[in-house]
């Protein structure tokens, strides 16, 4: 309809490689995109950027309240905020463990909770796309990271079923190793091992992950919920 306002999408972890690609892809698909990160940087295609540390549980509620008040209720939430310390299990400490779980799982859990409550209160449908990882299916040398992403997979399946009656779809993508600044921190020997095990023979590109996210966020996937889409070159 002429003059209608494009649907609003919120992308967390928007300053990272995948986050910037998702922001651009959703913008091309016709969304107004708010990019959120704890770093004050975002894809230039985002029409607005917000700073929040979503590893702190009450930040998710504050963020959604602020977005709702200033920009309206989002049609799409992409939970992409995450950290990867590239740390061996024997080198872990409680602080790093907490940071990984609070960011990768906690931000997804509490962000979706705040969003779903707002949608239900308004009687509106909505769509959630979580960024998990193939490590959540097959494990990871970084055990806390793999555990956090495995929990995101389980959370996606649980919430997709629990929220379907409220017309809220919840899905996830599970990327393999993707060429991003975060992945560049993985030790070279481990990167070589990963590459050797990928049937496609290469790492993914952020745009390839973003395309999957955009599909799950759009109307062509309207009958898809509680699903996890592997985007990993066949690694799984």
UniProtKB/TrEMBL annotation:
Keyword Manganese assigned: no
GO molecular function ontology, one term from the record: oxidoreductase activity, acting on the CH-OH group of donors, NAD or NADP as acceptor
UniProt keyword Oxidoreductase present: yes
Domain of life: Bacteria
Pfam annotation, one family: adh_short_C2
Protein name: SDR family oxidoreductase
Residue ranges constituting the Ketoreductase domain according to the UniProt record: 7-171
Record keywords: Oxidoreductase
Coiled-coil regions listed in the entry: none
PANTHER family linked: 3-OXOACYL-[ACYL-CARRIER-PROTEIN] REDUCTASE, SHORT-CHAIN DEHYDROGENASES/REDUCTASES FAMILY MEMBER
Family: Belongs to the short-chain dehydrogenases/reductases (SDR) family.
Native organism: Micromonospora aurantiaca (nom. illeg.)
């Amino acid at each position: 309809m002429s003059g209608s306002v494009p649907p609003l999408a919120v992308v967390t972890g928007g300053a990272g490689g995948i986050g910037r690609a998702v922001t651009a892809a959703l913008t091309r698909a016709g969304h107004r995109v708010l990019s959120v990160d704890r770093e004050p940087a975002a894809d230039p295609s985002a029409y607005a950027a917000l700073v929040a540390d979503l590893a702190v549980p009450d930040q998710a509620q504050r963020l959604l309240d602020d977005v709702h008040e200033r920009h309206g209720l989002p049609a799409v939430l992409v939970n992409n905020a995450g950290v990867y310390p590239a740390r061996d299990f024997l080198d872990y400490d409680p602080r790093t463990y907490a940071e990984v779980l609070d960011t990768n799982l906690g931000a997804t859990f509490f962000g979706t909770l705040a969003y779903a409550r707002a949608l239900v209160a308004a009687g509106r449908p909505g769509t959630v796309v979580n960024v998990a990882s193939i490590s959540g299916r097959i494990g990871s040398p970084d055990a806390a990271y793999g555990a956090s992403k495995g929990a995101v997979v389980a959370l996606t399946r649980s919430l997709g079923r629990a929220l379907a009656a409220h017309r809220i779809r919840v899905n996830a993508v599970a990327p393999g190793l993707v060429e991003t600044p975060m992945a560049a921190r993985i030790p070279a020997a481990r990167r070589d091992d990963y590459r050797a095990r990928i049937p496609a023979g290469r790492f993914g590109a952020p745009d390839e992950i973003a395309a999957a996210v955009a599909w799950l966020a759009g109307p062509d996937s309207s009958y898809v919920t509680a699903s996890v889409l592997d985007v990993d070159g066949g690694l799984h």
